[in-house]
Amino acid sequence: MEPSDKDQDLLSQELALKAVKAIGPGGPEPETAEETFWHSCRNFLRGWQRRHREASRHGQRPVLFVFSTMQLPDSVRPTAAKAPAFKIACPLKIGGKLYVCNENLREVREERIGFKDELEPLRFLEKEGLIACTAIVFLPEQDALLLHECNANLDDAVRLELGAVSRQPFKFKDLDGYLTKFYRQYVETHNGACDVWAKARERKLKPYAERQIQRSLKGFFDLTIAGQGAKIDQEIMTSFGRSDVRVLAYKDPMNWEQAIMELKVLQSSPDAKEWALEGIEQLLGYRLEHEKQTVACYLCCYDARSMDVDIPEVVSAAARHSFEHRRYFMKTPGTGMRG
Amino acid sequence: MDAIRRAGLLEVESLKFHRLQFFSNSLAPIYKTKPPVELVMKLERGPFYPDAQEDIDMLCVCGLASVRQVKWHAKGDRVWKTATYGLTAVGFEFASQLMKESLWCEDIATFMHDLVMAYSDLSDDVLDIVALKDVTYAQKGVSIGDVIPFTTDRNLSVRATSAIAAMLPQGYEPNRRNQLRIYLKYLEQLAA
Fold first, then answer.
1. Looking at the predicted complex, does its ipTM rise above 0.95?
2. H or E element in which residue B70 lies
3. Which helix (H) or strand (E) holds A245?
4. Residue A19 belongs to some domain of the structure
5. What is the pLDDT of residues A225-284, one digit of tens each?
6. Which positions in chain B touch A83 (Cβ < 8 Å)?
């Protein structure tokens, strides 16, 4: 149904803009229940970090958050007692406890287990037959998380740094540094947090490596700059197609600045150059649509080719359009040598 | 009821149950689903859907839903019932099975899931009020006892969600889940 001018009279513009600011414009396609749970936990823990002083947080034991799409919280752990929803409550003392929750943490059931170290919650999942649940182990002492996906091997739990709470607002000039940090922690070596290699020694990537990097980068931003007030969108629909990752900073509900990142994984084939140049064409389209709001466009090339060398045509094309070109060489055993 | 349970509401009182019915009818076009009823009668205590009431009572008889705190009320020559409803473990299993086996059920469940999640994310203080602030329900010139049809262009709630989307700069269209969330958030602001 196309809105008419008269439809604007249905609404209070001011309150509608407030609602848009609270939820955000655009955004990714609907998430899975597991992703919603993960986002809810992250938001809760961010709030918990902000609300309680470091000294009282850091002495606490690991915490385990568990969610299942197949079972209700009370069936997952019948011995866990009903607790106030994390939407309302933000108790200081969460250390050593198991929390069985629904995906938006409105239903919370708690049980004191007394986990001693970071591996104990994972062992607990195995011992108690909870491997099929999505689980997050929060390590208050380290401001870090271990993420266990449902039915995954416990050894594959991904560690993520929640980071200290920042009181500094997000600045676009810092974005480059965060991209570098992501590279170092996630993809620089085959042992990084984002495991994109099917056969690292042969430099053979997994089928959806680009998508995997995109999701990891979004997760990384969620854990870092989102805490400074930036909003992160993934695969934003624009009339020019989809941009990979977008970082927004609002001044007011309808007044924002943005940086757009187009991610490309380069592989050892003659198409690598065309693939990267296509990214530049995409960035041109996105920028054209929101020229005023766009403060930076990054072409991030995650380089899985065998040689660590720039592609001159890509470098010059990016420079011609004032795009930030970043090429991140992904090292594997036997490579990492500059060509 | 499955969506209500998954959104962590555990149980809902009659009032909330019928308010959610109203939203699921009025906002269904956002998900391109056909609602069972495209009208609401404006009553003092808020939206009420007799067929849905019968359905939920039937689910309770079958053991798929639970009921407690059943109370009868009377005012003048009018009588009505209130209760608190929940989904039983058997009901949860059954709903999960339906979603697996029927594409139609899966589509409806997606809409209901997103709607109730958006609703349950609102402040507890306004959960009973937001439906009364809905632009269809609260439109001018409608008195208590009037029937409000909201077929196609008369569905002001959907028109309001489109109007909010039109306020955004070109190229940024909220996805349908966001449309629900933004609209209910807007109603929350009105109700606050």
1. no
2. strand B65-75
3. strand A241-252
4. no
5. 887 778 887 655 444 445 578 888 877 666 778 899 999 999 988 789 999 999 999 899
6. none
Q: Are residues A134 and A246 in the same domain?
A: no
Which residue's structure tokens are 């039937």? Answer: B58
| Cα–Cα distance measured from residue A36 to residue A102, given in angstroms and rounded to the nearest whole number | 10
Q: Does residue B7 belong to the interface with chain A, where contact is any CB pair within 8 Å? A: yes
Beta bridge partners of A138: A63, A145
Domain boundary among A130, A161, A192: A161
**A209 and A79 both lie in a single domain:** no
Looking at the fold, whether A192 and A114 belong to one and the same domain comes out as: no
The band of B20, judged by pLDDT with boundaries at 50, 70 and 90, is very high
The pLDDT, as a whole number, for residue A303 is 95
In one letter, which amino acid is A204? K
pLDDT digit string, tens, across residues A313-323: 999 999 999 99
Q: Which contacts qualify for A307-311: CB closer than 8 Å, 24 or more apart? A: A307/A339, A308/A335, A308/A336, A308/A337, A308/A338, A308/A339, A309/A338, A309/A339, A311/A266, A311/A272, A311/A273, A311/A276
Contact B168 A20 (CB under 8 A): yes
Does A22 fall in a domain? no
- Residue of B8, B117, B166 lying closest to A107 (CB–CB): B8
Same-domain pairing of A153 and A179: no
Domain co-membership, A191 together with A141: no
pTM value is: 0.73
Domain that holds residue B141: 2-191
How far apart, in whole angstroms, are the C-alpha atoms of residue A100 and residue B8? 12
Q: A-chain residues within 8 Å CB-CB of B92?
A: 72
B interface mutation test: which of A2, A99, A106, A293 has the most B CBs within 10 A?
A106
Phi, then psi, of A162 in degrees rounded to 5: -80, -30
* Domain extent for A248: 172-329
The answer to whether residue A15 is domain-embedded is no
Residue with structure tokens 């929803």? A85
